[in-house]
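Request: When convenient, would you put together a sequence paired with its structure tokens?
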Amino acid sequence: MDNIEIYTQNKSLHDEENQAVVKANSLIQQSRFYLTAQEQKIILYLVSKIKPKDIELSLYDFDIIDFCKVCDIDYNNGANYRYIKQTIQKLRDKSMWITHDNGDEVLYAWLDSAIISKNKGTVTLKINDLMKPFLLQLASNYTQYTLYYVLAMRGQYSIKLYELLKSYQYKHRCEFELDDFKRRLGAEKYERHADFMRFVLTPALTEIENLSDIKVSYNLYKTGRKFSRIVFMIQPLTAKEEWEKRHKNINKKLNKKNTKG
């Protein structure tokens, strides 16, 4: 493989990673779901393919190797087709609850269909048409961010928390009852506060601090002897801070690759 081909492939991957994810705030703030980090990346990669002028949710075709690279799937594994099929089937079989403004709770599937063509080397996916109000023709009350910031995150709670905080960035502040906050993250099983901090909040905020385009701090408040409320303060990075963080993370990736090689 010559240098021009390597450059072309790297540029293509770079372009894919820098697409915008745009979602209605209601989808971010009022949904309840349980997806792995990898499953979330697949959905967000799909969402990043939607164009501002789209009026329908299309079938999206992906080169299977590019799809694996972006979604953090081991594409060098000889069993990758079987693994991709398993991963997409699990995602197709999962759903989420969204609470509407009138109080109704509605169950939505993520995907309408999935096609994997081993001969063509492609993956074709379609987002559920019922998701159109949350993803198409959004003129207000939406959140936009660059796909790049979530692709390097490993924790399922990191991505969900980043999206949630990003949706309140314009306010610079958001507040939650702690039990409701756990439900929003899908982390209700961590009943002990120490476990919630250790396995959910601390690692998620660490990834957000190291990888994303926002700065976050928080305060916890008690009712009696029990922590009952959490308040976040959110600030966007300056353009300079954002560039420096990206440059630092790119160098880390390069050093990691060189070490492996």
The mean pLDDT is 88. The two ends are 16 Å apart (CA to CA). The longest strand covers residues 226-236. The chain has eleven helices and eleven strands.
